[in-house]
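Quick question, first post here. What does this chain look like in 3D?
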Amino acid sequence: MPDMDGLEATAIIRAAEDGHRVLIIAMTAHAMKGDRDMCLAAGMDDYVVKPIDARLLRMAIDRVCALPTRHLAAHPPELQATR
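> Answer (accepted):
Ran it through. Tokens below.
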């Protein structure tokens, strides 16, 4: 990203959360040893590399969606009104 990287973006998103966690899956084309740990330590919920393998992406989405409810709000406020 030209103005900020995913680590910076994650920090901004996490700082702005008000009890409703935004799900973040890192996606990178330049996977190096330690990148996954760095992304998770920065507050991302999972990590996948490019080129995208649809099966691995789906597994990451499933893992993130299965996080305990104490980790995530059940329904963010903007979705509650439409339910």
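The domain at 6-73 is CATH 3.40.50.2300 (Rossmann fold).
The first strand starts at residue 25 and ends at 28.
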